[in-house]
Specification:
It is elongated, with a radius of gyration of 40 Å. 47% of the residues lie in helices and 24% in strands. The strands form four sheets. A five-stranded antiparallel beta sheet has the order 4-3-7-6-5. Strands 9-11-12-14-13 form a five-stranded mixed beta sheet, with helices on one face. Strands 1-2 form a two-stranded antiparallel ribbon. The protein has 419 residues and is of the alpha+beta class. The chain starts with a helix and ends in an 11-residue tail after the last strand. The protein folds into three domains: 96 residues, PAS domain (Beta-Lactamase); 91 residues, Helix Hairpins (Orthogonal Bundle), CATH 1.10.287; 170 residues, 2-Layer Sandwich (Heat Shock Protein 90), CATH 3.30.565.10.
Amino acid sequence: MTAMDRDERVQFIEDGMMVDPLVRIFEKQKKDLVIRMLKKHEEVEAKNFFISRIMSSLSDLFIIFADDFTILRAGKEFYEVLGWDVDQEGLQLSDIAAPEVAQLIRERFVGGDFRDLETLFLNRQGGPVPVLVRGTSCPGRTGKTVHMLVASDRREFFEVMDRMREVQDQLIHSGRLASLGEMAAGIGHELTQPLNTMLLLARNCQKAMADPLLHKEIISGNLSTIIDRINFASSIIHSMKGFAGKAQSEMAHCRVNIILLDVLNFIEAQLELSGVKVKLELEEGNLFVYGQVVRLEQVLFNLIQNAAQSMGERESPELIIRLERLRGIDPPSLSERMWVVISIIDNGCGIPPEIEEKVFDPFFTTREVGVGMGLGLSIVERIVRSTGGFVKMKTAVGRGTTFAVWLPEDETRQVPGGE
């Protein structure tokens, strides 16, 4: 009988002990399995560490959602900006966004990758946080989809924009005050006439008081004229105070023809003193735009005042103001639409070709040093652009200049023939 016949199992001596070959095989497999598990664990830990380092270094809010939009993971910035605890579990998309915003994000994910969605997240206290988001979806190995969302915190951007708007409002108001200062001489001359008249009539009344019964009619007539002149002077002062101190108005449906007439009424005295003949060519009916009354007044005032000053050396200065509705192309969309167009046409000195491109630059002026701030046309261009419009200029040296302000018509309030 052979050794195999005597014993079905072959035994070997290893380190003084009898070892079953099957046990030796199992031990080797166990050892290999443990080594593979350790390597796999190290790989997973390395991946997690790498992902954590990347997510913690991102300045954006990085969020990974499960298929049901439960938050699986998020970057450090997410917790700092929205105020949630890092160990908070079970957070959902609905916890960081209003229902309509959450629904919109879900729809965007269903449609595929998306970019540049301006929206609002909610912090832990329910306060709004403006963000710019983009997202992508990745199918997992188990068949479930993982959604990744990157959101840029826009709070600082909007704070800067708010400060810029404040500075622009202050600049526009400074321009109004500067324009009023330039008008001071003309207004002073306009007030001198009624003051001299009142002084003369008051002295006549003083003389007539020697025999009031005899001069009753003269005294009464003089007093009536004095009252009339006082009212006239008060209206000029009231107009100046109103124009200088008018507060920033809200966006509203603005009737352009009424605004234009108000500005002309205010600047009438200056135009008369400059000998400017004004010709109005106004389309019938009320023409509406959506904007701010104060700012539109500033646009018209600056353009009319500049036109009057450009005609200072003309023997017969003439100003044509045209208001009309025209169809034209909207530059951003390249589609046709209706515009309200205000054209200020003068027969002044014109603008030389070499400075045409500079006229809308802030603080650029062709006037003498110390006369004017060079803000007029810059302010005009900024205001018109903020309403979605634009300014066209046409000029010829020695023949005059035309500034055409194109403002998008407020078609919701357009009423043929007026209201």
